[in-house]
Amino acid sequence: MERRAVFKSRWLPYALIAPQVLLVFTFFYWPTGAALVWAFTLEQPWGGGSAFVGFDNFAAVFGDPLYWASVGRSVFFAASATTLAMGVALLLALFTDRQLSGYRAYRFVTIWPYAVAAPAAGLAFRFIFASEAGILAFLNQISPGLWNPSMNGNQAMLTIVVCYSWKYVSYNFIFLLAGLQAIPRALVEAGAMDGAGVLRRMRDIQLPLLQPTFFFLLVINLTESFVDSFGIVDIMTGGGPAKATNLMVYKIYFDGFKGLDYSGAAAQSIVLMVLVMALTFVQFRFIERRVHYR
Amino acid sequence: MIERTPILNAVTHVILLSGVVLAVLPLWLVFVASTLTLAEVNAVPMPMLPGGAFWDNVAEAWSRARLETKLLNSLTMAIGVTIGKVVLAALTAFAIVFFQFRVRMIVFWGIFVTLMLPLEVRIVPTYAVAANVLSPYQTLLNAVRIGELWHWITGTELALEWNLLNSYTGLVLPLVATATGTFLYRQFFMTIPEELVESAKMDGAGPLRFMWDMLLPLSKTNMAALATIMFIYAWNQYLWPLLVTTDPSYETAVTALQRLTPMSASTGGGTPDWNVAMAAALLVMLPPLLLVIFMQRWFVRGLIAQDK
Predict the structure, then answer these.
(1) What ipTM is given for this predicted complex?
(2) 20 to 30 A Cα–Cα from B39, which one of A178, B22, B101, B227?
(3) Which residues, numbered 55 to 114 in chain A, qualify as contacts with chain B under a Cβ-Cβ cut-off of 8 Å?
């Protein structure tokens, strides 16, 4: 969209954009370029700079069963956390939108978890789900060893999924409720006049019209669960036990900063980057569709 | 809607109440645990009502994690990032919407693409840049042989260095660029009627005057919304502060939580003092929580506006 009324200046627009452009170049594009370079080179062990090695780093990453295990866990985490966070949020949003008495209070409280820092939530849930204290410790009194997320990988995965979803339910809830409120009231009322009950209207009017918001959120949730899970994993499980919660983003951090394998970490970063780009691309396809709906 | 659906209404309240319980229960448990003594917090089942040791636990967590420094660091970082984002996004969007210049669309898309480059996927090289922010420019200068020219003229090596590790600048600067903020402003600036710009120009206002006296007052609500979101975002940052600060006097409160995580008894850490850890967690989660509680409207508006 072009505007007719524009200011004219030879230097001012450049001065205005300069700070942000410099930051974006220095902290976004340069590191991304560096990641690309590192992914295709290998530092010589006894100095002498780095040598171009083609796709060797990627071959090493893809040939590593530990990497595929971490990909599998990330996909499982993304799928289950997204399902849980979106399912619960959708249920709450649909019923909040009925606007029964007190719905403002429900709405108000339901959005709180989003404000909690992921690591603080992680620490809280680590306590809540601890094996020797917290609310599930009674399981171990019934049968010792029944519940121990610090030893049992599946239980550890469960705890990070629950913690992550807890935070994202409120995020999704805000968007879904806004989406529902954007549906013209007249449509829902017309449905009611035609004798459609509350649940029927949800199914046949509100849910179809909510679809664009829903798909938009679905992609956001998948993307975020791949990249935003770091804090929760680091505080709750540290990738353990026995790498059962070693998600892709945590593995990059670990290989890069603890293992000092820059080339391997860079190759993994590129894979994750491609994944995020693909998801973002899909997302903007859906945003375009959303504009047409309205 | 006027309908008589008593059963469904009851079901609705049950569903929404369980939502509220799910949202609040973890927060309640954190609060309760932070008020218990060491023996009480490790009792099975744990008490559901607060005890009397709250201030002891807070004092213990406070001194053990040096929270006065950490909370102050968090506040400094969050305010720095918030102001940086609110100001830079406004300047960039202003230039993009109200000026016609050659690289306009390139800048717009260049900022747009950063949405696909979250910190987590470029973390190792970003850390390398933070160790010397000028290294990209050094590399560029060397590539065009300016380094050699410099050496030839002055006889010294051209070595640009600016280390951001363990500094407030390092905590703030890499997080300030914002695509979502820029779009938020751009979207709003596009709704400004052209007549307003025309009349401002007719009255002799230059671009800066127009921005300061007309645009900024009009964007107050957007700014408040953006600032709320960004403050919470910055306060809750974890990965970046974790990497960029190794000196405890620059650590933020959120990263300090890691040090307070008790070892479980099974891995040889003695009786875990969850009461102290929860007191610290409570203090760390409180500022953004209060912000959401008191600025709910701005928070929701800012969040929703981001996706448009």
Answers:
(1) 0.87
(2) B22
(3) 88, 91-92, 95-96, 98, 100, 102-103, 105-106, 108-114
